[in-house]
Amino acid sequence: MTDFKQHNPFRVPKGYFDELEEKLCSSDDSISKLNPFSTPENYFEQLDEVIEQRLSINKRIPQKSNLSSLIPKFIAVAAAIVLIVTLFQRTSTQEIEKEQAFNDFIESYYSQTLDSYDMLSMMEDIEIESTFSSPSKP
Amino acid sequence: MQNEQSIFIKALRDPLTKEEAFKKLVSEYKERLYWHIRKLVLDHDDAHDVVQNTFIKIHLNIDKFRENSSLYTWMYRIATNESLNFINSKASKMGLQNQEWIEAKANGLMADSYFDGDQAALKLQKMVAQLPEKQRIVFNMKYFDNMNYETISEILDTSVGALKASYHHAVKKIKNELND
């Protein structure tokens, strides 16, 4: 009796359950009911033309490989320009700094070694007049 | 069938016949690829962008197609990859994870003029959006597109066993959500 219960005498064709699953899910009605999305009117009729236009635009745009070969050249030129500008700016700054240092040295030399009388004696009369006639700083 | 495909691919590769053959290809597959993409990106405008990019990729890469799968499977793979790249790019621009971006899209479906579903359909879409990416793709292809596991396996380059497990987990999660 126990043996009889344990043995299942029925068989199904090979792959039956896989096919059954497919069939249960493949009713055409269920697709239309399940698809809740829609498109603008005549969308698919116009899509061919849209894709054709995109393709023709793509053909006119230079290939990526050409663009990528231009990028390192562009970077090299940009780097050279930046380098030249930086060097020029540094040179001009250094010249201004040298001139300022020289003026500072002259001023400090005169103020340390000469008194006001010596300074006045070195100046022309007209310079003395203009110095005293200009308003004094607060 | 295989011979017919080979002749068609030859026409797609020949500069003299390429244009005409490509028009035929677009006409034949545009709807199927569009609906596959649409179910992945959810929004019509996004699907419109992705379907164009997909056909451009097909046009550019037809010479690289090695014919070890059907043309249909190969195009489906490109469409799937383009959709996932699109989602990835949009999500990262907004500082979101891919799934967060899709969930946000699903939550906005009721306001979408090209979504005709009722509350039940909306609920299903929201639940599908919550699935991990692989499960979501498998669920869409199996449940909505009625594809068999062998075809999905070729497209996603995943074993049938792994696909069955993914689909089983997805269905289980959705059933559990529906019962709550």
Q: Percentage of helical residues of chain B?
A: over 70%
CATH class categorisation of one domain in chain B: Mainly Alpha
- The shape of chain A is elongated
Largest sheet of chain A: none
Determine the structural class of chain A based on helices, strands and strand pairing: mainly alpha
Strand tally of chain A: 0
Helix and strand pattern of chain A: HHHHHHH
Helix content of chain A: over 70%
User: How many helices of chain A?
Assistant: 7
Cα separation of the termini of chain A? 125 Å
Low-confidence stretches of chain A: 26-33
Mean pLDDT of chain B: 93
Major sheet details of chain B? none
Q: Which ranges of chain B are low-confidence, i.e. pLDDT below 50, for 5 or more consecutive residues?
A: none
Task: Note the gap between the termini of chain B.
Answer: 48 Å
- Quickly give the structural class of chain B: mainly alpha
CATH topology group of one domain in chain B:
Rna Polymerase Sigma Factor, Chain: A
Order of helices and strands of chain B: HHHHHHHHH
Quick tags:
heterodimer; A: 138 residues; mainly alpha; B: 180 residues; Rna Polymerase Sigma Factor, Chain: A; 9 helices; 0% strand
